Each structure stands twice: as structure tokens, then as C-alpha cells.
Amino acid sequence: MTYIAHETAIIDPGARIGDGTRLWHFCHVMGGAVIGRGCTFGQNVFVGSAVRIGDNVKVQNNVSIYDGVTLEDDVFCGPSMVFTNVVNPRSHVPRKHELRTTLVKRGATIGANATIVCGHTLGRYAFVGAGAVITRDVPDFAVAIGNPGRIAGWMCRCGAQLAEGASVPVCAACAACGTRYVARDGRLAIDE
Questions:
Q1: Is there a domain that residue 20 lies in?
Q2: Boundaries of domain holding 117
Q3: Which of 50, 78, 101, 108 could in theory staple to 126 by disulfide, Cβ–Cβ 3.0 to 4.6 A?
């Protein structure tokens, strides 16, 4: 099995793309990029040369994934969401040596038109609402909304709401799938 790319997609030499990945109209993957298995890239997606993407990642239309961004397995990037990689860009001042990394951990979701300012981590199964502007780390299972992004609640890995508010719940159980969660060291974790 190999990847599938629309005839308008551009795959530069040196890009590594996993089996079963699909790239639709006008995608561009730079040489050096590493993309896992079973991913889907919508129309007009750009992937930089120093980008690492895990398995089963879904990237919707009009998303640019710039150098310094890492997407772990099962990440979802909504339409027209934005990653940055320089904090203070100026056209006349070269800053390629100042790139800041962004890590999006396993299972995280980023809503349509959200902006992820570089230098931050989105935790496992975190959920960033549509249009949010993320200017700090988002913990595992947290729901972040607004501008600037703030924690508004907590979400199960299956996508069901666990609790409202910014405070980490002491314990919670998902009404949809039954997964149980507990607070450990100020963070929400699956109770195993």
C-alpha cells in the first residue's frame, strides 16, 4: 500500500509519507517532512520540511503546518486553523534561527479558524474551540476557548463533556463511554 495524492498535489523529493495517507487538491509537502499512516489532508494544505506528523491525523482545508510543528497520532486540525512559528515576525528582519516549536499531543482537536501561537503544547485529547487564540499551554483533556484562549471545561478522550470550569475536577466519569478520570498532581488523568 502507498499514499494517494491528487494530481495537483506537490510532493517534494525527500518527503516521507505513510501508507494509506491521502492528499487532496493543491497540497504541498516539502522535502524532509515526515507524515504517518492513514492521514487525510484536505484541499490547500502546506506541510513544511521540518514537520513531523503521526498516524491517523486529519487536517482540513486551508491549513499550513510550518517548520517546528509536531502533530502526534490522532490529531484533528479544523478548516483554516493557523500555526505560527515566530513570535515577532518582521518582513525585513530574518528570524529563521528564532523558530519556536509547537507540540500537539495525541488525540487533540483544534477547531476551525483557531490560532496556535508558537512555543506551546496542546495536551493529550485537549480541545481548542473554533476561533480560539492559544497563547499558553493547554493541559490534557482541557477545553480552551476565546481570545486569549482560556480553560472553560474538560472533555473525555471520546469527545463527551466531563466538567465545566477551569478547575481540574477531582474525579469524573464519562457518561458516554464510562472512562473514569482523577486529578493527579493538579492534572486530569485517566484512572487506570
A1: yes
A2: 4-167
A3: 108
